[in-house]
Amino acid sequence: MNATIIGTGYVGLVSGVCFADFGHNVICVDKDPEKINMLNAGEMPIFEPGLATLVKKNVEAGRLSFTTQTSAAVKNADAVFIAVGTPTRRGDGHADLSYVYAAAEEIAAEIEGFTVIVTKSTVPVGTGDEVEMRMRRVNPDADFTVVSNPEFLREGAAISDFKRPDRVVVGTDEPRAIEVMKQLYRPLFINETPILFTSRRTAELTKYAANAFLATKITFINEMADLCEKVGANVQDVSRGIGLDNRIGKKFLHAGPGYGGSCFPKDTLAIVKTAQDFGAPVKIIEAVEQVNKDRKRSMAARVIEACEGDVAGKVIGVLGLAFKPNTDDMRDSPSLDIISALQAAGAHIQAYDPEAMDEAKSLLENIDYKDNAYDTVNGADALVIITEWDQFRALDLERVKALLKTPIIVDLRNVYVPNDMKDMGFAYSSIGRP
After folding, report:
1. Domains of the chain
2. What pTM value is reported for the model?
């Protein structure tokens, strides 16, 4: 099959390289010449484990290429995937679909023969209808079908998620489109991956519903952590106790400083706005969205409390800036709120993240960026762990204690064992544990 991917952001690039690795011929298109030049030079615009190796392999095999030219890329395509950004629109919280519509209209002018147009971007219910209308307005005689095929990729594990997914959701009832999508995903049949064919609107809503539910689980266990602190219970044991129930499941029950990233904050807000527009408000998700905002802001207060109520003039070492490990994504990361609040309280921040510091430099000012974890600890009045990178899980704690001015650690990811830390002489604070 010949597939074209419009957009080489996180979703587009991962999808493109994985389809190529399935054996399809894939052209990835992006308007940004700098990004395309990077990719053609073998450099990755994002950090994702294993991505560079997979890109190199498929480029060398002749199955994967990159271009800024939409016209030539779509003419021979069996399927064209729209994988452009849908950021939160300023002013009203809705998803900004301008990039999706622009891509669709450009594609419409160039396609030849029957073509499946696939919205891979996360879009609100009804977007596929609008895409189809706009494309037919540009090219009334074109033979195409618009399909919804939402992605369910976790940053840091995206390649594995694409190749071994829990499910594939395809929104279309057009027989020719169904056949094309089956052929594209045929390599997954050997693993008996469930491929769910639904209506287009159902597929669009499924993506938002999935992310909203996972965000709700995270927010739920964070509130349970607060309750655990008040009553003297252990949130990790509570998580295990409820997670062993198959109806609940153990994933996304890790208490922490709140969710961030490219999906959950944007998608929870978008589904809230969509539901309000359709007269079916989703009160639970509205509460989740607000509670998560409040939680991220409140984490700085924990650090200040651990420093005896005052961080003015103090040096705070921060380990982890990305919203989660194995990514350089800083979008809505808890670190942004926490660091800004600490700086407002008079603290000086020195920080380290294995992958996200270049991105952080464009978002945070007056940070002393360090080369490793121990340089970050050196001379600090307190250490805060915000992102649970593996290399932060096995620090030489005796060395950490010697480097800190005062042995204060605020562990917002529950990486270490409280009793062990206290036995070593640390003033140790974590989330939801006595």
Report:
1. 2-198 (3.40.50.720), 297-429 (3.40.50.720)
2. 0.91
